[in-house]
Amino acid sequence: MKLRLPAPMGSLLKLCKPFFLTRFSSLPNSPATTHLRTGHCRALVKPKKRYGSFCSSSLSSSRPLASCQFSSEHGGDGADGPAPAADLWLFNTMSRKKEAFRPKVEGKVGMYVCGVTAYDLSHIGHARVYVTFDVLYRYLKNLEYEVCYVRNFTDVDDKIIARANELGEDPISLSKRYCEEFHVDMMHLHCLPPSVEPCVSDHMPQIIDMIKKILDNGCAYQIDGDVYFSVDKFPEYGQLSGRKLEDNRAGERVAVDSRKKNPADFALWKSAKEGEPFWVSPWGPGRPGWHIECSAMSATYLGYSFDIHGGGMDLVFPHHENEIAQSCAACGQSNISYWIHNGFVTVDSEKMSKSLGNFFTIRQVIELYHPLALRLFLLGTHYRSPINYSDVQLESASERMYYIYQTLYDCENVISQHAVQLDNVPPDALDCITKFKNEFVAAMSDDLHTPVILAALSDPLKNINDLLHTRKGRKQQLRMESLAALEKVIRKVLTVLGLLPGSYIEVLQQLKEKALKRAKLTEEEVLQKIRERTAARNAKEYEKSDVIRKDLATVGIALMDSPNGTTWRPSIPLAMQEQVAPTT
Q1: pLDDT tens digits, residue range 164-180?
Q2: DSSP state of 155
Q3: What is the strand order of the sheet 146-151 is part of?
Q4: Are 397 and 380 in contact (CB under 8 A)?
Q5: CA-CA distance, 206 to 36, in Å (whole number)?
Q6: Is the Cβ–Cβ distance between 342 and 312 less than 8 Å?
Q7: Cα atoms in the 13 Å half-sphere on the side-chain side of 246
Q8: Counting CB atoms within 10 angstroms of each CB, which of 3, 216, 224, 409 has the fewest?
Q9: Within a 10 A sphere around the Cβ of 77, how many other Cβ atoms?
C-alpha cells in the first residue's frame, strides 16, 4: 500500500451555543511604546484608540457567530485556576514538562485543535492526531467538564488551489468534498464530532479584522497588497519551539521573498494572483496566509485566552509558533495554558514521507483492517512517542480486538438470560474492579497513558473468561453479579477510549470479514477446509489435518476445536507471530 498524498479537511460550519463573553483586564494606558507581558506574550505594542481597553473576542463588526466563549473573570491563568476533583497531568510543550491541569473557568474547558487542509483523503498521521484529541475530549467529559472543542478546516490554501487547478475544479468545492470524506473517516474511527467546526472561507471578516489589529499595533507591514508579520517585533518568537530567530529560514509555507524585512517574516495576507480565489480587503483583493486562520478562528470561538491548543508535533514550528506571535500582537492578553502535541507516525520504522511513497490513507488501511483495530493500534503507544505503523502491528491489534469483543459478547449473552442485581458483588470481583478503576484513573491522569490501560484490561477480561469457561468459575456463587459488574466497568473504560462498538456481534463479524479479505479466502472456502480436516481426523490422517490447520494459520485463520465441533477466528499470520512482542 504505497501512496503519495497530502492532507484533507473542511466542511460546513457547525455552531454551538455560546457560554460567556470573554473579558480581559485593561491594558496599560501608556502613550509610549510598551512591553506587554502576559503568560507567553511579550509583544511590542503601541496602544491606539481603536485597540481599546479590552481585547474584544468578536473579531468583526459583522453579526457575531455563535461561540463557546468562557468568562475568564473567575479563573485567571491556567496555573492559578481551580484544580479538578481528580488531578490530570498533561505535558505542556511550552514548559517542556507535565503540569497539573487547571482550567481558566471552573468546570469548563476550551480546546482548539488544528484541523486538516482538505485537498485529498486523510492519512494515518491525521488519524493519530484526531484519535489522540478525541481521547482527551472524551476524558475531560468523563471528568464532568463542559468542553467546547473547536477543530477547524482549512479550505483556502496554496495546496488546495494547486490540486483544484490540476483537476479543473473549483477550490472551495474540492475542499468541501474532502471535508465530507474526512467526516466519514472520523466516523469510522469513532471520533466524536467537535463542538464547533469552522471553515476559513466562512471567517474572512474575522481574519481581516485580526490583521488590522496586528498592523495597528505595529507588528506587521504591507508590501504591494501583501501583509507580512514582522518577527523582529515579537521578542519571544521561538519560545514554543526553542528555536532562535537566527536559525529560522524561509520555506514551508513561509514564502521566499526578497522584499521581506526578515526572511522569517510570514504572510498574514497574500495579494490575489490570476486564477486564484480572492476576497476584498483593505490591502486589495487576496486571501489569508495559513497561520492567521487558526488565530482568528480560535479567538472567535474561545476568546484570546483559553485552556488547550493541540495538534501534531510537526505544527510546533512554524504554525503554532506563528499563531502565538500573531495572537499576542493582536491582543496582549492572549494566553493559552497548555500546548499539547502528538508524536510522528513512522512506516516500517521509516518516517512517513511523500518522497518515500510510504503514505497510507485511512481508507487504504480500513479496507483491510477494522477501523477500531486501527484506533486500538494508535492507542497502544503513548501519544507523544513516535509510533511505527506496520501490518504486523495492525494484525496484533485486530487479534486483540477480537479477543476483547468475543469475551464481552459471551458475557453479555450469559447475563441476558438472568435478572442480575449489582448491589451484591462478591469481594474477588470487587477487588478486580477496584484495581482496574485505579489503574485507569492513574494512567489517564498521567498524561493520557492509554497503553497502560490497554494492558490493565487483561485482568478483568481473564476474570470474565474464567467465570464463563472454567469449571471452578461456573460454580462460583453470585457468578452473574460478578460478570455483570466486570462487563460494566470494561464498557465504561472502552467508552472513554472510544473503543465501545454499538454491537459486539456486528464488529466480530466485521473483523472476520477483514481477516478473510487479507487471507484472500471466502468463508465458504474456510468452512470447506474445516470439513476436509474433520474428515482427515476421523480417518486418522493426522498429518493431513495438521497441514490444513497450518495452511490456514499461515494466512491468519486459527481453528478452534471443541466438543461441539470446529470453528475459526482471525489470528496473526504465522510468519508475523515471531515479530509480535508477547502481551500479558
Answers
A1: 999 999 999 999 999 99
A2: -
A3: 146-151, 108-113, 305-312, 335-342
A4: yes
A5: 23
A6: yes
A7: 0
A8: 224
A9: 14
